[in-house]
Amino acid sequence: MSGDFKSPEDCETMADVRKGVDCTDRELVALLERRFGYMRAAARIKPNREAVRDEARKASVIAAAVADAKARGIPGEVVADLWERLVEGSIAYEFEKWDRLRG
């Protein structure tokens, strides 16, 4: 998918919208790839398995994402739901990597 797409404000057709959505989705997946890379790094760095789940950090990450979303004018409750799943998925992934490195 080409990165040559219109901004939402410049879209004139549903084809423009769909191309922009598709390109944005590819960018989001690339960012998730990087985020999960940090989870692999955390699994490598954390000294014990108990350190993988950090509820205070989880709450902080979700709160920051919600605040950023609200500041950008997008629905905070949707971002909260997405980040809950993202963070829980990241924790599960990190546990898997931590166990694999030390198993």
Nearest-angstrom radius of gyration?
17 Å
The CATH superfamily label reads Chorismate mutase
Q: Biggest β-sheet, characterized?
A: none
Question: By helix and strand content, what is the structural category?
Answer: mainly alpha
Task: Write down the CATH class.
Answer: Mainly Alpha
Give the domain tally: 1
Helical content band: over 70%
First-to-last CA distance: 39 Å
The total of beta strands comes to 0
Number of helices: 3
Can you write the helix and strand succession as a string? HHH
Summary, kept brief:
This protein is mainly alpha-helical and 103 residues long. It is 74% helix and 0% strand. α1 (14-45) packs across α3.
Question: How does this model look, in words?
Answer:
This protein is mostly helical. The chain has a single domain, classed as Chorismate mutase (Chorismate Mutase Domain, subunit A), CATH 1.20.59.10. It contains 3 helices and no strands. Helix 1 packs across helix 3 and helix 2 packs antiparallel against helix 3. The radius of gyration is 17 Å and the shape is elongated.
Provide key terms for this protein:
0% strand; Chorismate Mutase Domain, subunit A; mainly alpha; 3 helices
Write the layout of secondary structure elements.
Blueprint: H1 14-45, H2 55-71, H3 76-102
Helix pairs in contact: 1-3, 2-3
